[in-house]
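Task card 7
Instruction: Convert sequence to structure tokens.
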Amino acid sequence: MRHIVISPRRARKPFVRRASQFHLTLDLPLTGTIIWAKSSRKGLNMNTPTNVTLSIEGMSCASCVSRVERAVLAAPGVTAASVNLATETVQISGTADTGALVKVLADAGYPARTLQATLNIADMTCASCVGRVERALKAVPGVVEAQVNLATESATVRYLEGQATPADLIAATAAAGYAASQPDAVEVEDRSDRKDREAQAKARL
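Output:
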């Protein structure tokens, strides 16, 4: 912050002038000080530094570690990267988007490890419901892909290991107005059988 002290010739009311990136505050009657400060106006490009840890597949030696580090450090917005062969993870600092980092790792031949969850989704009645549920799931940090099936009343979600959990997915669908739960294999088979019977019954009509 830069301070410029001036001697006021006569008292004036304090006022503020704003520029595109700074605002100027004159407080002549009190201190006679001009203060330049960063503007907090919305719309400026201010990326917030973040830290993310991704699990990686395919690393087997020190050379793999070096290749992963070089690939990640070359990504825009990355300021630091630390790869751990023992835990098969990379810790990344900077402002890079997680989706972009996942692509960088895949292009380098060391894809980020993902997990898959299947959810039962209640109260869906149309294509609009499907769209709302998919958008809610894709908005969860760490989700790579989400597919919702109206016929089976279910959703299949692929997400980054350590970045999301099934509980996060269930909470997201609930916030969108659709209750969700994790089925077991028997429930999936029973639901599929029920849908088949309903389709056969309609065909006979």
